[in-house]
Amino acid sequence: MQRHLRKFCEAKQQNMDIFEKINAGRLNDFMKESMENLSAKVFRTYNASHTLQVELNKGKIDCDKDSVD
């Protein structure tokens, strides 16, 4: 997959968007076709919360000793 992304980016200048035809509005419209009220923001928040919970469940964090910093 990384190889394909690199090849796709070869024709792009550094200041160009990789996926110039995709924007937040189009992405949100697409997501709402799958689920009412689903947006990129909601998806990112869910994904971050899920990832955090998975990491917490691994038990490597001691809430009494470890800090957010």
Description:
This protein has 69 residues and is mainly α. It has one domain. The chain has three helices and no strands. The longest helix is centred in the C-terminal third of the chain and has 18 residues, at 40-57. The protein starts with a helix and ends in a 12-residue tail after the last helix. The model has no long low-confidence stretch (mean pLDDT 86).
Relevant terms:
single chain, 3 helices, 54% helix, 0% strand, mainly alpha, 69 residues, extended
Q: What's a concise summary of this model?
A:
54% of the residues lie in helices and 0% in strands. It is built from three helices and no strands.
- The number of distinct helices, counting runs of at least 4 residues, comes to 3
Radius of gyration, in Å, reads: 18 Å
Give the count of structural domains: 1
Portion in helices: 40-55%
Topology (elements, then pairings):
Blueprint lengths: L1 H8 L14 H11 L5 H18 L12
